[in-house]
Design brief:
Largest interface: A-B, 24 and 35 residues
Largest sheet of chain B: 8 strands, mixed
Number of helices of chain B: 10
Strand content of chain A: under 5%
Order of helices and strands of chain B: EEEHEEHEHHHEHEHEEHHHEE
Radius of gyration of chain A: 24 Å
Structural class of chain B: alpha/beta
Largest sheet of chain A: none
Low-confidence stretches of chain B: 323-332
Oligomer: heterodimer
Distance between the termini of chain A: 19 Å
Number of strands of chain B: 12
Number of domains of chain A: 2
Distance between the termini of chain B: 28 Å
Mean pLDDT of chain B: 87
CATH architecture of the largest domain in chain A: Orthogonal Bundle
CATH topology of the largest domain in chain A: MetI-like fold
Strand content of chain B: 15-25%
Number of strands of chain A: 0
CATH superfamily of the largest domain in chain A: MetI-like
Radius of gyration of chain B: 21 Å
Chain lengths: 310, 332
């Protein structure tokens, strides 16, 4: 178990290093960063000055070593657009994004898992069919379109909630709702099919024949077995929420990592883009590591690897 | 009423998938089955796949509701059971299924699963339940040290012993064994059969042993019932049925049992083809495969009749008088 976790941890670090290296190189070979910062009309002299200032005149391996050395000391440089330290910019935006993604994720689980269980237990009923039709719709509509629809409903038509900004808690409601609806739709469909599959297993019939109460069959026998594939899917869905923050935060003008990232890309803000990719990658790697560990904790076949009897 | 378990007119119909607005079609998995089981009686139910024997087992245990007919356990009908009565019935009955790997929860230890019934019915505290599970595991030939193992850490034979231990821990009066040894290797099968025989001797236990294996069942039951397409076609004492089968289907089944005696060889299979559910509508369900079928079999369902020591549902059962297709010794 310990060696399993250590191996996964080492792999996570390798993924992080490779991703950062890859992005660093790609950003430099896919076009001159200095030209991107200054635009098409800049004079060659201005471009040369910018190159020298930002160290872009050195070779890429050299630039990378300098960058990596500074990054290890927590120095990610300054923003090329306003000169503020990149670390400060990221530190401001991370909590904003985490509020939206963690709340959406928790609500996704709290909504999706019970709905999935109930529809599986009542499969074929009118309620099951209605909820699952809704889930297909929620799952199919892209999040930016869902976001616009939600803005129209709550901000324009009902006028009960603000549609953009982040000054009050009410501002967080619509982005969280958007993230939750799409996520819960996918999770509930998955939980339903996993539960239906497991409730047909012979060990469930055996538990029923032994007189185990139905709620205990669902919670003690079926749910832990459905949780194994569910954890994998929840990892995807957490990753999807983070990636989706680029769209959702832009739609709701929420000043988090996602909207910051799309702005930085459009301004060619090299240092900020690099640091944000590093941050996103770190989150993704952490999610995957958590999934791997949870998977081992939940599944005795993996937990007990190496000391099997035949 | 002295019978432990009694089923009358027991019928289970499954609705078949049909086009919208079409008249719904039904498959009669179990069709008007009559059955009675005395305390400590051992009944074998045999038939090929699709004959409805597993559904019969589920009906007897009340795991699925019949479309028609009823099941009485100790004189009380499943249909009139209140939740408390169900709990009492669940404590006195059990189920053992075919594949022991899928019959065990992969996430729970052997000890937890064997002890579960004790805990669910609050017959003992946690430690007491564990002690009972350990004792029960020893009774099925497993060491109590296996309590903390998971199903995937055991062999097939060990798993089936665990499933049997889980079924017997509350000392039930009735167990349904559904193909309980079919998934096991022949050598392991023999051990489990011996185990079941000795467990039965020590207990006040009646069971229904569902199988397609005519050789295994003769070591395990007193009486046998042969099913074909949801109907019971012949039933009686195992010795008399095996030595003088009356129904053409029983005769064909027994003649098809492979033997190690090289002087007895079945060149031609006695019956051909497969189950034909469309034939269950009217007349004898077996007629399409029966070498003796005649005009009456087309229109009239043969009723169960007492004939000597067994009951047979065939219009011309008398013709198949004792001259057996082949003798099969019945071990006792």
């Amino acid at each position: 178990m310990i060696s399993f976790i250590l191996a996964r941890f080492a792999r996570a670090v390798i993924v992080l290093v490779l991703a950062v290296t890859f992005v660093f190189v790609i950003l430099r070979v896919s076009g001159d960063p200095a030209e991107q910062m200054l635009g098409d009309l800049a004079s060659p002299e201005a471009i040369a000055i910018v190159r020298a200032n930002w160290g872009l005149d050195k070779s890429i391996p050299e630039q990378f070593l300098i960058y990596a050395g500074n990054a290890l000391h927590g120095d990610f440089g300054v923003s090329t657009t306003d000169g503020r330290p990149v670390f400060t910019i990221i530190a401001e935006r991370v909590p904003k994004t985490l509020i939206i993604t963690i709340s959406s994720f928790l609500l996704t689980v709290l909504l999706g898992v019970p709905i999935g269980i109930l529809t599986a237990v009542r499969r074929g009923s009118a309620a099951d069919k209605a909820v699952m039709t809704g889930a297909v719709v929620g799952y199919s509509v892209p999040s930016f379109l869902l976001g616009v629809g939600i803005i129209f409903l709550f901000a324009v038509w009902l006028r009960v909630l603000p549609s953009s900004g982040s000054s009050t808690w009410q501002h967080a409601v619509l982005p969280i709702l958007t993230g939750t609806l799409a996520g819960a739709a996918g999770i509930s469909r998955f939980v339903r099919s996993a539960m239906i599959d497991i409730l047909d297993q012979p060990y469930i019939a055996a538990a029923r024949a032994d007189g185990v109460p139905e709620w205990e069959i669902i919670l003690r026998h079926a749910l832990p077995n459905a949780a194994i594939p569910l954890v994998t899917l929840l990892g995807f869905s957490a990753g999807g929420l983070l990636g989706g923050s680029v769209l959702i935060e832009t739609v709701f003008a929420w000043p988090g990592l996602g909207s910051g990232f799309s702005q930085a890309v459009s301004y060619g803000n090299l240092t900020v883009v690099q640091a944000m990719v590093l941050t996103f990658t770190a989150f993704m790697v952490t999610i995957n590591l958590t999934v791997d560990i949870l998977y081992a904790v939940l599944n005795p076949k993996i937990r007990l690897q190496g000391n099997d009897a035949s | 009423m002295s019978a432990l378990l009694q089923a009358s007119d027991l019928t289970k119909a499954y609705r078949l998938k049909s086009a919208p607005f079409a008249r719904p079609a039904y498959h009669l998995a179990v069709n008007a089955v009559e059955l009675a089981l005395e305390p400590r009686e051992r009944l074998g139910v045999v038939g090929e796949s699709g004959s409805g024997k597993s559904t019969l087992g589920r009906l007897l245990l009340g795991l699925t509701a019949p479309t028609r007919g009823e099941v009485l356990f100790e004189g009380q009908s499943h249909a009139r059971r209140k939740p408390g009565d169900w709990t009492r019935f669940r404590m006195r009955s059990s189920l053992v299924q075919q594949n022991p790997l899928s019959a065990l929860n992969p996430q729970m230890t052997i000890g937890e699963q064997v002890a579960e019934a004790v805990q669910v019915h609050r017959l003992s505290n946690r430690a007491g339940a564990r002690d009972r599970a350990a004792t029960m595991l020893e009774q099925v030939g497993l060491s109590s040290g296996m309590m903390n193992r998971f199903p995937h850490q055991m062999s097939g034979g060990q798993r089936q012993r665990v499933v049997i231990a889980r079924a017997l821990i509350l000392d039930p009066r009735l167990v349904v064994f559904d193909e309980a040894v079919s998934a096991l290797d022949v050598s392991v099968q023999a051990q489990v059969v011996a185990l079941l025989r000795s467990l039965w001797r020590e207990r006040d236990l009646a069971y229904v042993f569902i199988t397609h294996d005519l050789r295994v069942v003769r070591h395990l039951v007193d009486r046998i019932a042969v099913m074909y397409l949801g109907r019971m076609v012949e039933t009686g004492d195992i010795r008399s049925v095996y030595s003088a089968p009356r129904h053409p289907y029983t005769r064909a089944l027994l003649a098809s049992v492979p033997t190690l005696d090289p002087t007895i060889r079945n060149i031609a299979p006695p019956i051909r083809g497969e189950l034909d559910p469309g034939r269950a509508r009217q007349g004898c369900a077996f007629r399409s495969r029966c070498p003796h079928a005649f005009e009456r079999c087309e229109r009239e369902v043969p009723a169960m009749r007492q004939l000597g020591s067994q009951q047979v549902a065939c219009h011309i059962a008398e013709q198949f008088n004792p001259a057996p297709t082949r003798q099969m010794e019945v071990a006792r």
